[in-house]
Write a structure and sequence with these properties.
It contains 8 helices and 9 strands. The chain is an alpha/beta fold. It has a 7-stranded parallel sheet, sandwiched between helices.
Length: 262
């Protein structure tokens, strides 16, 4: 199926690694022009080298509203507009033990909200006027399945907030031709996975292979989803083909066992 993304101008945040990087590469495969945003210029330059000519590198910290607006201005100045925003610039979920309520500090939650929730909001706020003016746009927020489970108060709060923000933005922008969706990855295979599995194996006294099996035990497909497989779903949501989906959350974690969402 042609996703009709040829020539679309996309800004991907968190594009230096992980899901953001995979999304950027997937959109390029579909014919889109892609601007790469993250704090680490070197990481962005490496992804740009994979893409080849045409990639736009716009280093910025999404906790800084002025930096976000300047980055969007750079993209619009280079390409005369922006069609797609994928928000993936967030701190990775911790693989360490979850602090108890007594040990949880205000700052632990504050930094997650500042980075993920407000960071996503700043980027959406900066691109929305350009999308509504042209009567078309797609915003996809990468959240996480912690929104649907307990066990990490910080992870649940930040991801539920992203989902709530998504629904509100979809309602406000939908009549202007802008669809806004959120995807919830679970544990996803990225460049961090080997280290996470090694740490878990050492903590549990098992092998890395056993740790990986345990990490995938709660999935219906019996294995971990890769960043590239998440990117396939995101690419569809970025396309004109996804017009029927807006404001909704799409789980992309291989199916959570033992739960029903309707």
């Amino acid at each position: 199926m042609d996703l009709q993304l040829t020539g679309k101008r996309a800004l991907v945040t968190g594009a230096g690694r992980g899901i953001g990087r995979a999304v950027a590469l997937r959109l390029v495969e579909e014919g889109a022009q892609v601007a790469l945003l993250a704090r680490d210029r070197a990481a962005l330059e490496a992804v740009a080298a994979e893409i080849g000519p045409g990639a736009l590198v716009v280093p910025a910290d999404t906790t800084d509203d002025a930096a976000v607006r300047a980055a969007v201005d750079t993209v619009v100045g280079a390409w005369s507009g922006v069609d797609v925003l994928v928000n993936a610039a967030a701190r990775p979920a911790s693989s360490g033990p979850t602090p108890s309520l007594a040990d949880l500090t205000d700052d632990a939650l504050r930094v997650e909200v500042e980075t993920k929730v407000l960071g996503y909001l700043r980027c959406a706020r900066a691109v929305a006027p350009h999308m509504t003016a042209q009567g078309w746009g797609r915003i996809v927020n990468v959240s996480g399945l912690n929104a649907r489970r307990t066990g990490s108060l910080v992870g649940t709060v930040r991801n539920v907030a992203v989902a709530a923000m998504t629904a509100n933005l979809a309602e406000e922008l939908g009549r202007s031709g802008v669809n806004v969706t959120v995807v919830h990855p679970g544990t996803t295979v990225t460049e961090r996975t080997a280290g996470v599995a090694q740490a878990r194996a050492e903590a549990d006294g098992t092998t890395v292979e056993q740790a990986l099996t345990a990490m995938a035990a709660d999935t219906r497909i019996g294995r971990l989803v890769t960043a590239e497989e998440v990117a396939d779903v995101v690419a569809f949501l970025c396309s004109p083909r996804s017009v029927a989906v807006t404001g909704d959350a799409i789980a992309v974690g291989g199916g959570a066992r033992g739960v029903v969402h309707y």
